[in-house]
Amino acid sequence: MKLDELLMCLRHLSWGAADILMAYARGLKPPHGFSQELKVDDSGDGPVSAADLAVNSWLLDGLNSHFPFSSWTLLSEESAKGQLKDGLPLEADWLWILDPLDGTKDFLSGNGEYAVHLALVHCHRPVLGVVLIPENEELWIGVLGRGAWCEKRNQHRKSPLFSRRSNLSELILAVSRNHRDQRLELLLKQLPLGDSKAIGSVGCKVATILRGETDIYISLSGETAPKDWDIAAPEILLKAAGGEFTHADGTELRYNTGDIRQAGCLIASHGIKHPQVCEMVAQEIRLIDPDFRV
User: Fold this and answer.
1) The CATH number of 3-158 is which of 3.40.50.2300, 3.40.190.10, 3.30.390.10, 3.30.540.10?
2) Which whole-number Å values give the CA distances from 48 to 56, 105, 206, in the listed order?
3) What are the boundaries of each domain within the chain?
4) How many Å apart are CA 251 and CA 215, to the nearest integer?
């Protein structure tokens, strides 16, 4: 398969997803035949809206129809319960991992900090990813070995622009708006960093690093950890752009391992002080909770 052909398909599907989500967000009739009623259910892991399900259908059906003979497997947050068995990875060398609406709470609140994540994973590591931020009219694309960029609907490209902040006391931290436990609160008080900004979707957080608005994002969690579909696309974007996204001990993230949780301490950054930040965070976590596995 040619990369240009795949990217053209992803552009079409992504902007179609943007149209669906923005229609729901504004109380309008969404395109492509989806119902206008914005019904919201509780999945047990958080709210699932009609918008999540519509985008899920649009993207999965689109990939299947554009590439009917492909050998890849598709995994979505909305279909995962029927596909996954605890402790068993999917038998797939090539795997699409989709979050049709990362930041559903932010979408429903109307703050605009929601995104669509889609990543192509090969043998447990992402090689291509897109993060669509509809309210900003931004389609971020990252390809291993090819770099990362941001597109508008007319395909005008803009390169990432990391900040040049390098002193730890200057670094700006992107933190979760909705997922913060006591350990994270204690950690943030101990870190000698600069300002912090609370932001919704993981994709939106990483986009602020790519724009140079922030420099670091830290995820600290156990049982309620972000899942593969929350992290895979933002990670490959940042890595393709020259940034870093690792565990606090410096090990790389892996996907489709049999455990969809990305538990522990994950650190994303523009890369300038990444090893020092990881070491500092790991030391503080050992003091806060010696039993916590970073």
Assistant:
1) 3.30.540.10
2) 11, 9, 23
3) 3-158, 168-288
4) 20
Nearest-angstrom CA–CA distance, 4 and 62: 16
On whether the CB atoms of residues 225 and 180 are closer than 8 A, the answer is no
Q: Are the CB atoms for 101 and 109 separated by under 8 Å?
A: no
Of residues 258, 289, 269, 286, the one with CA closest to residue 214: 269
Q: How far is it, in rounded angstroms, from Cα 104 to Cα 203?
A: 12
274: pLDDT strictly greater than 90:
yes
Q: DSSP labels for 183-206?
A: HHHHHHHH-----EEEESSHHHHH
Residues 198-247 have pLDDT tens digits of 999 999 999 999 999 999 999 998 778 999 999 999 999 999 999 999 99
Residue 76, Cβ density class (10 Å: 0-12 exposed, 13-18 middle, ≥19 buried): buried
C-alpha distances in angstroms, 151 versus 24, 114, 154? Answer: 23, 17, 8
